[in-house]
Amino acid sequence: MDKKRPAESAGSKFPWQEGRSVLGCVHSETMEGMSHHLERAHRVFLDEITSLREVDNRLNEQFGQAVEAMRIALDAGRKIIVVGVGKSGNIGLKIAATLTSTGAPAVLLDSMNALHGDLGIVCDGDACIAMSFSGETAELLRLLPHLKRYDMKIIGMTGNVHSTLAQHSDIVLDTGVEHEACPLNLAPTSSSTAMLVMGDALAMALLEARHFTKEAFARSHPGGALGRALLTKVGDIMRTEIARLPDTATVAECLMAMTQAHAGACVLVTPEGELAGIFTHGDFVRAYQKNPLVGEIPVSGLMTRSPVCVGVGELAAAAVRTLSHRRIDDLVVLDAQKKPVGLVDTQDLARLKLV
Question: pTM of the prediction?
Answer without folding.
Answer: 0.67
